[in-house]
Amino acid sequence: MKTDSEFKILFKKHAAELLALTGDHGARVLNVDSVEVRELRRSVDCVMKLEHEGQVYYRHLEFQAETRPDMAFRCFRYNTRLIVQLEAPVVTTVIYPFRPGPRGDLVFPVEVGGREVNRWRFDTVRLWKLDARWALDTGEPGLMALIPFMRGGMTFR
Question: Is 19 exposed, middle or buried (0-12, 13-18, 19+ CB in 10 A)?
């Protein structure tokens, strides 16, 4: 199953309903689109322009069907270029629908002379770890579309 296209459509149509998934409770969706990162000449999967308590920021989503060892670096590359391009804070989240996903957090450390001088952390959502009952109970179509990927989701056929 190719997930990028389907997930992009889902998040474009149901972004507000899916904010609970990314931890953006209380935010208002101002815009959702794929954004071309100019210097990289590559479109990232999904960027939502959000406003929460008067602050405008962006949530960058990457949809990954399989674990990639270079994902933290890719997120760093996309995130920093998006921050420069959009001139606003950008929070990056990688959504994994399938196991195993990365072993730990997605972290891109910057080291100079063997000393860590910066550390970039990226959020991850492992859909199979979320309870399908929670998504079902919300009644939100966007979240309900993800139930087959969630724990216990196959019991709600």
Answer: buried
Contacts of 32 (CB under 8 A, 6+ apart): 11, 12, 15, 46, 47, 48, 49
Start-end of H helices in the chain? 4-14, 19-22, 71-86, 132-138, 141-144
**8 A C-beta contact, residue 44 and residue 63:** no
Q: Which two tokens stand for residue 133?
A: 């009952």
The model's pLDDT over 103-114, given as tens digits with 9 standing for 90+, comes to 888 999 999 888
**Distances 4 to 44, 48, 86 between C-alpha atoms, Å:** 10, 15, 23
Q: Which pLDDT value is given to residue 33?
A: 87
Kindly tell me if the per-residue pLDDT of 9 is higher than 80: yes
Structure tokens at 150: 């969630």
Q: What is the gyration radius of the CA atoms in the chain, in angstroms? A: 16
Contact 107, 119 (CB under 8 A): yes
3-state secondary structure of 129: helix
Beta bridge partners of 61: 46, 93
